[in-house]
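User: hey, got a sec? need HVA22-like protein folded
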Amino acid sequence: MGVLGVVAKRLDALVGPGIMLLFPLYASLRAIESPSTLDDQQWLTYWIIYSFITLFELSCWRILIWLPFWPYVKLLFCMWLVLPVFNGAAYIYENLVRKYVKIGGRVNGNYSEDQRKVLQMMSLDARKSVVQYVDKYGWDAFERAVKAAEREVKKH
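Assistant: Yep! Here you go:
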């Protein structure tokens, strides 16, 4: 078995830490510093899923040692979760988690589907403040305030 054979056999050990830990760590730090909450959702979801995978491995290690393909399945799945081309963690959150876990309650009122999505992305405290503002001044006033804030951010 040559060098390429060894590399192919241990690809998960060579590439895995960078894809499963280093890149997500760097991206999480960038997400914390960015003003958008969408990247926060991607990386918080990634770390939750990665924690579940780790717990699964720790609980089922006696079975997993008999499955030689497990490290490669884990590597491919984590690549799907992490790589910006796929954004798998955000996909899982939007299509699986969000349907079943509603922390902070539902958004009530006469809001369009897009408006509900915007409100659901906010923290509970922010959502309460925005709902009060919208009730008092209307959704159009809220959108104008957001656009004004975006313009102000672009200036600096």
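Quick note: The chain has a mean pLDDT of 81. Let me know if you need anything else on HVA22-like protein.
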